[in-house]
Specification:
Protein name: N-acylneuraminate cytidylyltransferase
Radius of gyration: 29 Å
GO molecular function, one term: N-acylneuraminate-9-phosphate synthase activity
CATH architecture of the largest domain: Alpha-Beta Barrel
InterPro entries: Aldolase_TIM, Cytidylyl_trans, HAD-like_sf, HAD_sf, KdsC_fam, Nucleotide-diphossugar_trans, PseI-like, PseI/NeuA/B-like_N
Distance between the termini: 41 Å
Number of helices: 24
Organism: Sphaerisporangium rubeum
GO biological process, one term: carbohydrate biosynthetic process
């Protein structure tokens, strides 16, 4: 092995939570980095150094070897050099490479040709170190006393660009080094240093959410289109076969404009043995007529398109990883997440563009379907080469379509497989409208070791049915109508501002379950870290759409819901920032209704992190949920179960919550990593008791 590429990819990230699994052009950043290295002809082996199981899974699927990065080298202050040197040490028995390449996931657009050119310079002895950089003629200034001063120029003399010698801005994408020199100096720069210039369009580093949005917007322009090797092509209709416009005559009859070239594309696919299908939410004779003309099957009038797609794939015996789906709006997100090749039309909804692995260059109704067909045919034996407006930097295809159940960042925590269980103290309305009680319950949760507390937020005039508003209710504050009572226990902006301040002081996240759209707007003004969808709200599609629009992490409780109802909710909410909670909405919950194996069912069905929201008495069921893989546990909490109010009886008191968190942490430790081995504590009894015979 002459050339080893090392990709440091820790799970933690300050600017963008779990940045290395963030998707650009439909691929996680770590996958893009590995793909570039694999495609470089001079790189012999690719290693990813990581402390995160999800990153390791994605990297291994793309063809990388995994080196477990120890905690001491995984913090925010750990250098990239330390990860590279650790990887070299771990691989010491496999032969010392002559050249090592440090490749950073933060650069989404690494051209394998640039990597090869840089490696070639070191192998040829032209330099000891080569780094990626952009040529620049920019004027740089710094703060100098009361004003600013020129760094690389005299402000009194402003030569023309063509009269200035070029300078180079380091991109951070890759560093090629002699391995022996790195070991000797412990730093990436030593000896003779040279530059490998790269295009300016490749030089955006992802350090902030804004950077991530920029590279996602650039991906359709920068990534070079390549063949799409699939066994089936499924398309949405409106916005894909059409430009999403409809013509209506005086009789109410609809007509749309389509591209004739799409028909030939589908015909060629069918001749090549590629299965095709059209899915549509609407039941429309226009869709039926067009599908008949194309000679393709169509499923329409669907409330949950991805459920229909999953069933069709099962019936046809197709591997979702080898299926392409092209869509343009949020009701396509479930289908896009299900297949290995999610495709979007240009001008699609931003969430669809972010989820897409491929963004077509032709618009819906203007040859988008034909473009996709041509790229699929290009992957078949003897197929034509795909066409595109320009030749762009290559990002090779991954060896796996996606990473399932990737952790979701909530506040300062990652919630998902391989992460500490995220424990939520559900205060709900157990504060009884008293801010002091709320603060005391926050203390209870923080002292027990919870990561978050959750409240409920309602607009009583919306949430209280008309027939119940004037019903008289006996309360600790005297006799009042039910509507008056709901106002009495509802916190406003001043109270929640204090709750936010106090939670920050105690170092604990807070959010709430909004029960109506104005409550979502209220909580957005409070800048909560996430939103919780109560089980009662799973079928409130207006509320779900508003929550999806926030872009915040969403926690979906699934009590009293069928899989079909959950399918519809997930289609609206998407899965990129979704955590699901298995729940049974019985208060208190009897063990025979807990149905904890549904945690596994939900995880396998939706591919998202799944937790447990419990309403039982005691701790056993919640702890069992953790052993089944629940990534978060939510329990109602109270100061005293005998307090007045509907939820106190099914809540945990302070000591119960403390024991719950303690036992969850013990279980996490006890579950281990699943690798069967002899532990240090077994060595003595093994030497004393083990008998070996032949």
């Amino acid at each position: 092995m002459r050339v080893l590429a090392v990709v440091p990819a820790r799970g933690g990230s300050v600017g963008v939570p779990l940045k290395n699994l963030a998707k650009v052009g439909g691929l996680p950043l770590v996958t893009r980095a590995v793909n570039a290295c694999v495609a470089a002809g001079l790189v012999d082996e690719v290693v990813v150094s990581t402390d995160h199981a999800g990153i390791a899974e994605a990297a291994a699927a793309a063809g990388a070897r995994i080196v477990d990065r120890p905690a001491g080298l995984s913090g925010a202050t750990a250098s990239s050099e330390s990860a590279v040197l650790h990887a070299l040490h771990q691989l010491a028995g496999t032969g010392e490479p002559e050249v090592v390449v440090l490749v950073q996931c933060t650069s989404a657009f690494i051209d394998p040709a640039d990597l090869d050119a840089a490696v070639a310079k070191v192998l040829a002895g032209e330099a000891d170190v080569v780094f990626s950089a952009v040529e620049t003629h920019e004027f740089v200034w710094n703060q100098a006393g009361a004003g600013v001063g020129g760094v690389n120029h005299d402000p009194a003399h402003r030569p023309r660009r063509q009269d200035r010698a070029p300078e180079y801005r380091e991109t951070g994408a890759f560093y090629v080094m002699r391995a022996a020199g790195l070991r000797e100096h412990g730093h990436r720069f030593f000896g003779a240093v040279a530059v490998q210039t790269v295009p300016a369009g490749h030089a955006v580093e992802v350090d902030t959410p804004g950077d991530l949005e920029i590279v996602r917007a650039l991906a359709p322009v920068v990534d070079r289109p390549g063949p799409i090797d699939v066994d089936a092509v499924i398309t949405d209709f409106d916005g894909v076969h059409t430009d999403d416009h409809v013509y209506v005559d005086q009789e109410g009859r609809e007509a749309v404009a389509v591209s004739r070239s799409d028909g030939l594309g589908f015909d060629l696919l069918k001749r090549a043995g590629v299965k095709v299908l059209v899915l549509s939410t609407e039941r429309n004779p226009v869709v039926t007529a067009r599908a008949r003309k194309l000679g393709v099957p169509v499923l329409q009038g669907l409330s949950a398109k991805h459920t229909a797609l999953r069933d069709w794939l099962s019936i046809e015996g197709l591997d979702p990883a080898r299926v392409a789906y092209v869509g343009n709006d949020v009701n396509d997100l479930g289908c896009l997440d299900l297949v290995g090749w999610p495709v979007a039309t240009p001008g699609a909804h931003p969430r669809v563009l972010a989820a897409a692995r491929v963004v077509l260059t032709r618009a819906g109704g203007d040859g988008a379907v034909r473009e996709l067909c041509d790229r699929v045919l290009a992957a078949r034996p003897g197929g034509p080469a795909p066409t595109a407006p320009a030749v762009r930097a290559a990002v090779p295809a991954p060896r796996t379509p996606r990473v399932q159940a990737a952790p979701v960042g909530i506040g300062g925590s990652l919630v998902g497989p391989g992460q500490p269980v995220y424990v939520i103290g559900e205060i709900g309305i157990n504060h009884n409208g008293d801010l002091d009680i709320a603060r005391r319950l926050i203390d209870v949760a923080a002292d027990a070791g919870c990561q978050a507390v959750k409240f409920q937020k309602r607009t009583p005039e919306i949430c209280v049915p008309v027939e119940q508003r004037d019903l008289i209710r006996q309360t600790p504050w005297g006799e009042m109508t039910y509507l008056e009572y709901k106002h009495r226990v509802e916190f406003g902006a001043a109270e929640y501002a204090e709750i936010g301040r106090y939670c920050a002081e105690r170092g604990i996240d807070w959010f709430a379950s909004p029960w109506d759209v104005p409550s979502v707007d209220f909580l957005e003004d409070m800048d909560v870290v996430a939103h919780k969808v109560a089980s009662a709200s799973v079928t409130d599609l207006e509320l779900l759409r508003r929550l999806a629009d926030t872009g915040k992490p969403l926690i979906l409780s699934t009590g009293m819901s069928t899989l079909e109802e959950i399918d519809t909710a997930v289609e609206i909410l998407g899965t990129s920032k979704l955590v699901m909670m298995h729940a049974t909405s019985t208060y208190p919950l009897p063990p025979e209704e807990a149905n904890l194996r549904a945690i596994v069912t939900l995880r396998e069905r939706y591919g998202v992190p799944v937790g447990y929201s419990g309403h039982e008495r005691g701790l056993q069921i919640s702890l069992a949920a953790v052993t089944l893989g629940a990534v978060t546990v939510e329990r109602h909490i109270t100061l005293d179960r005998t307090m007045w109010g509907s939820d106190h009886a099914a809540s945990l008191e302070p000591s119960g919550l403390e024991h719950l968190v303690r036992d969850i942490r013990i279980i996490e430790t006890a579950l281990g990593d699943g690798v069967k081995r002899v532990f240090p504590g077994e060595e003595a009894p093994k030497s004393r008791l083990r008998r070996v015979t032949v």
